[in-house]
Amino acid sequence: MSTKEKIQESVDVAELINGTSELVLHNDDVNTFDHVIETLIRVCNHSDIQAEQCAMLVHYKGKCTVKTGEFDKLKNQCLQLLDAGLSAEIV
């Protein structure tokens, strides 16, 4: 019988705010590909192809980083994705 040790990393809040953060979109069983693609184009300024590729990655991998940047800039985009019914978070 083996044991796996889980490690929780502590991250400084200032590092999250000033450093590079990622806007991650998660898969769900509710939204259509078209809705996800249209929302990524509108909210994240993705091209058609980029939005389609992200939607496919989310579907098959469970999640995808759709944007990187400063926390403050990503916060508004994350809220817009959530308002559109998508599942997103900033990490």
Automatic annotation (TrEMBL):
Adaptor protein ClpS core domain mapped to chain residues: 22-83
Keyword Hydrolase in annotation: yes
Record-annotated membrane-spanning stretches: none
Domain of life: Bacteria
GO biological process terms on file: protein catabolic process; proteolysis
A GO term for molecular function: peptidase activity
Keywords assigned by UniProt, alphabetized: Hydrolase, Protease
Signal peptide: none
InterPro entries (alphabetical): ClpS_core (IPR003769), Ribosomal_bL12_C/ClpS-like (IPR014719)
One Pfam family matching this protein: ClpS
Protein name: ATP-dependent Clp protease adaptor ClpS
